TrEMBL record:
Alphabetized Pfam families for the sequence: FlpD
Keywords for the protein's UniProt record, in alphabetical order: Iron, Iron-sulfur, Metal-binding, Oxidoreductase
Protein name: Hydrogenase iron-sulfur subunit
GO MF annotations, alphabetized: iron-sulfur cluster binding; metal ion binding; oxidoreductase activity
Source domain of life: Archaea
Species of provenance: Candidatus Heimdallarchaeum aukensis
F420-non-reducing hydrogenase iron-sulfur subunit D domain: residues covered: 15-133
Length: 139
């Protein structure tokens, strides 16, 4: 999906993690309860389902100061009809806007996290942290 020829330097390493109330947040919470280490720059928010956000929300969030966004979907476990397929379309539309604006698409990641998937949650955060470390503009 990455089409940008030049890597952008990013001024912040803040990561917005969007989780679902009933499923993916529980995976993040499990990681916390197990005292697993991940970036202190991560901010977790809980929503009924990430499909509620339009594509431009992700782009504006990156433009306003977040280094990266992880959308932790419930996948097929979501109680909302076809939400994962609709969310995937929203993310694809966001990637198109990001490419038009020259924003690296690696800054937005869609992943599925189950209620007991602490390891998957940590892996997603650590991967984003490594990426942001590699493109972070030193002050």
């Amino acid at each position: 999906m990455q089409q940008n020829a030049k890597r952008q330097k990013i001024k912040t390493k803040k990561i917005l993690i969007i989780t679902t109330n009933d499923i993916s947040y529980l995976g993040a919470d499990t990681a916390g309860q197990q005292h697993l280490k991940y970036s202190e720059d991560a901010l977790i928010i809980r929503v009924p389902d990430p499909v509620i956000f339009p594509p431009d929300f992700y782009v504006r969030t990156l433009e306003k100061g977040f280094g990266g966004i992880i959308v932790a979907s419930a996948g097929d476990e979501s109680p909302f009809l076809n939400s994962h397929a609709r969310l995937a379309k929203n993310i694809d539309a966001a990637y198109k806007i990001m490419n038009e604006k020259g924003i690296d698409t690696k800054r937005l990641v869609l992943t599925a996290i189950c209620s007991i998937c602490a390891g998957s949650f940590i892996k997603a955060v650590n991967n984003m942290t490594k990426y942001l470390d590699s493109v972070h503009e030193q002050e």
